Here is the input.
Amino acid sequence: MRIDIITIFPGMFAPVLNESMVKRAQEKNKVRIKIHDLREFTKDKHNKVDDRPFGGGSGMVLSCQPIFDAVKKIKSHVTGHRSHFAKSQGRKVPGIDGAKVILLCPQGKTFNQAMAKKLSKEKHLIFICGHYEGVDERVRKLIVDEEISAGDYVLTGGELPAMVVVDAIVRLIPGVLGDKNSLNFESFEGNLLEYPQYTRPQNFRGNAVPEVLLCGDHRKIASWRKAEALKRTKTRRPDLLTAKKQRRQ
Here is the structure.
């Protein structure tokens, strides 16, 4: 998989991309991640990437030109020929050149594990990190295939959501995690939170590990874990169970 991230704050990404699982995934050549400074694509002599909104209002809006040129350059470089999306004459052509363009912004769909699974199967993702008061609407209309939000709260920009989405996606790429079976027992798999986990010592300050985990009977342990996962989900995230029920109907 290849992931390109377009941002006005490229320095924010190094601490995340160069550590832990994402770093190992890159070292294994399971994913290639490249950060692009949006200011390098502007034609403004002062390297401006934003302007005042038409119709008035507070704040600034990210302009079309640098974003369009950044996406065009990335696609042209990856495919080895000039991208055709600029020839669409105002008609959006989703996923052209095999790349899916995603805008990180508050107006997008709330990110979840199902979306992470779907995106992890893509060969090429291009993330545009929104900022200021948003992006020119023509970016959405002409080059964006999907919009994603990290949640119902306000952040300074799309950089942190991009890091979250990338982390969630990369760990699902086959061969990235050491134990592929561990993915089947994580939170949100089957719309359930993960069951309680314990490690040594067996007894810590009078709090002992449940006996069932020490019995050696894998069927009993699996049954206990499933029951505990269901109990925890009912208590903490009943909405997950409601959503699961609605999908079955």
